[in-house]
Amino acid sequence: MIKRHITSALLHALKDNPVVLLNGARQTGKSTLVKWLAERRYRARYLTMDDATTLSAASANPEGFLTGFEGPIILDEVQRIPELFLPIKAIVDRNRTPGRFLLTGSANVLFLPRLSESLAGRMEILNLWQFSQGELEDTNDRFIDAVFSNKFSPAGSPPRLDIFKSLALGGYPEIQKRNDPQRRHAWFESYITTILQRDVRELAHINGLTAMPRLLALLASRIGTMLNFAELSRSIVLPQTTLKRYLSLLETTFLIRLLPAWATNRSKRIIRTPKLYLTDTGLALHLCGVDEQLLKRNHTPLGHFLENFVIMELTKQATWSHERVTMYYFCTHAGQEVDFVLERPDGTVVGIEVKASMQVDKSSFTGLNTLREILKKNFIRGVVLYMGNETIPFGNDMTALPISNLWQ
Q: Are 47 and 73 in contact (CB under 8 A)?
């Protein structure tokens, strides 16, 4: 099994929380990880709601089902039986033994108020994303911790990255086993069908979701852009109310990621337009009909896919980094932009710009310089990630880094 960097955080959570939820999209390795833990580090009974008999028993009598087990239990794909959450709450309130329940879910409970509220204060939530590049290459990818450090000293010339292959593969574990592009295509097709026909339909409780595959493909073609409901509504011929509900479902099932805008006034951030990304770049390329060879021949769409790749690498690392950061993008009315703003709770910030080119110059730092002028002492440093192979300083707090420094 490929080592998952979130394992340590998961074990620590089980030591002081009665309920731990491991959240994430289907096929990201949740079941593999919790089974491994049950066998080696966390002795517990494993049960999955994907098993018809288990599902039937839990549905018929949720409280009786749970009280029939002694000791720690793992409940896989628990979002399929929301009736289990209140009995879990009752059991935990009677006995708050740490590690009593380890749950996994393919739907984000933060978007399902009835579920999240029932275990508020009793449950720690961790997200398991697709493989990070560090996990795939067995390196200690802690770029977020490093870039906030006073001793930031990136590698001079990390190994050259085959970025086109990394983008095309994405991070789903099953895809890593498939060398044939046609077999990867078949897997992605089946995956999309399963998610939209089962998980999304179960959450929505409606059958009329025929527009969802077209919507997902449309979103893939707009990654890295600001979310424009009016334009999307016209393009797919859906009322905006329906469109917003569908987007919420795609976010709930971890297929899309919305990045909010950064502003000096925190209250303004919630009303500004977010940027749109897919949670896996390999899936985004598949939906756009772009493969590795086509991307090599035509670099025009590379910038958006590279940006998607970087935000998801940062998102994955944030689940195990020591530094607690919130991510945003930055854009002024004059058009000055920074792709990603990483902000700590104390308000200090690192800005990251992504360039799909082999060279950078001082103009690549324009948006970062604007952000530094606004933040003054709260600006720690700016980084431009690019496709070259050399680390180049552009002043004391500005650096151009190869993309592979994210995990090397």
A: yes
DSSP state of 91: H
Residue partners of 83: CB distance under 8 A and separation at least 6: 58, 59, 62
Q: How many CB atoms lie under 10 A from the CB of residue 21?
A: 24
Q: Cβ contacts of residue 281 below 8 Å, gap of 6+? A: 167, 170, 305, 308, 309, 312
Task: Give the number of other Cβ atoms within 10 Å of residue 208's Cβ.
Answer: 9
Residues in the chain: 408
Question: Would you say the pTM of this structure is higher than 0.70?
Answer: yes
Structural domains of the chain in order of their starting residue, each with its CATH number: 7-127 (3.40.50.300), 133-406 (no CATH)
Question: Which tens digit of pLDDT belongs to each residue from 97-124?
Answer: 999 999 999 887 666 666 656 777 889 9
The percent of residues in the chain predicted with pLDDT above 90, rounded, is 71
Please state, in angstroms and rounded to a whole number, the distance separating the CA atoms of residues 171 and 309: 10
CA angle 101, 195, 199 (to 5 degrees): 50
Query: Is the confidence at residue 267, as pLDDT, over 60?
Result: no
- Which pLDDT value is given to residue 160? 62
